[in-house]
Amino acid sequence: MSGADSTSTERAEQDTAELTALQAALGAEHAAVYGYGVVGGLIDEARRSEARAAYDAHRARRDELARAVRALGGTPVAAAAGYALPYPVSDSDGAVRLAAELEERVAGVYSDLVRATGGERRRTGADGLREAAVRAVRWRGGSVPFPGLAERAGAASAPATATPTA
After folding, report:
1. Are 164 and 31 in contact (CB under 8 A)?
2. Which of 64, 99, 107, 153 lies at a C-alpha separation of 20 to 30 Å from 31?
3. CA–CA distance from 76 to each of 7, 9, 28, 59, 72 (Å)?
4. Domain boundaries, the chain
5. What is the pLDDT of residues 33-47, one digit of tens each?
6. Contact, 68 vs 121, CB < 8 A?
């Protein structure tokens, strides 16, 4: 195999890895948008504007990721019709816990995006990770040592994937 063929193959593999990570992040954003619909319906009035801002931020990230997927020649993964919540949410306290969980899961997927990409896409992943980690701290009231990796440390949390789980 010539050097040009090797470089071409490596670039194709990198593009595939980036596309896979972008699709996973897009799926996580779809789930977060859905989840914040639940949060917004149950959250106390005092935190409703915070929930709305997070909802809007996830919608913007979702749209940005869909554009990035198209730029790599992919078809953006569609949102599911519905998502299973990680636990029943029936009041404002549950909505706050759900918001923190959503942000932790999104942070985990963005950490994967950072790992799989370079350049501007890596910056997008790092920005998404940072934003999700900051929102998680606000919802949770405390931080974790390594945002985006915490959910991978314990077996109690589900993995952050693009499956239809909010």
Report:
1. yes
2. 153
3. 26, 23, 12, 14, 10
4. 3-153
5. 999 999 999 999 999
6. yes
